[in-house]
Write the C-alpha cells for this entry.
Amino acid sequence: MMDVLLHLEQWLPMLLEQYGVWIYAILFAVILAETGSVFMFFLPGDSLLIAVGALCSTSSDVHLQYMGILLFIAAALGYVINYYTGQVLGLKYFNQHSRFFKPEYMQKTNAYFCKHGALTILIARFVPFVRSFAPFAAGSARMNFASFMLYNILGSALWIGVLLSIGYGLGNIIGFFKDLII
C-alpha cells in the first residue's frame, strides 16, 4: 500500500481501469492530504499532477477541465485546513518549553510571514516538502487570512494549471510519436 502512495503516478492507468470515475475522488483525497497535513509531505504532488495531465490526454474517461477544477479545490482546501491546524496547534507547540519549539522562533516566524508570507504561500506550491509546511507556519504565525487566501487561491490555480498542462502537453507529444511509429 505504501508503494502505491509513494509512486501513485505509476499506478494511475491501473487505478483508472480498476476504479473508473472514482479516480477523481482518489486524486482529490491525495492532493487534499498532501496540502492539508504537515505529515503527508511524502506524497508525490508534482509528479502526480504531471502524470494526471498525461492521463487526461490519453484517456477519454478522465477530462482535463473537470480534473483541474477538482484538484484546484483540493489544493486550496488543503491549505486552508493546514492553516487552521497551524493556528490551533502551532502556538501550543511554540508555547511549550522544548529545545525545538521556542517562543523566539514563533516571533521570528511571525515577523517573516508579516514581511514575506504572501510570496511564500505562492512559491511554496512548487517546492515539495515546503508545500506541506508553509500553510501550517502561516497559521501558527497568524498571517492575515485574507492575504493568505488570495495567495492560496492564486498558488493553487498556478500549481494545478501549470503541472496539469505540462503533463497534458507531454501526453499529447508522446501520443503523437506513438501514432507515427505504429
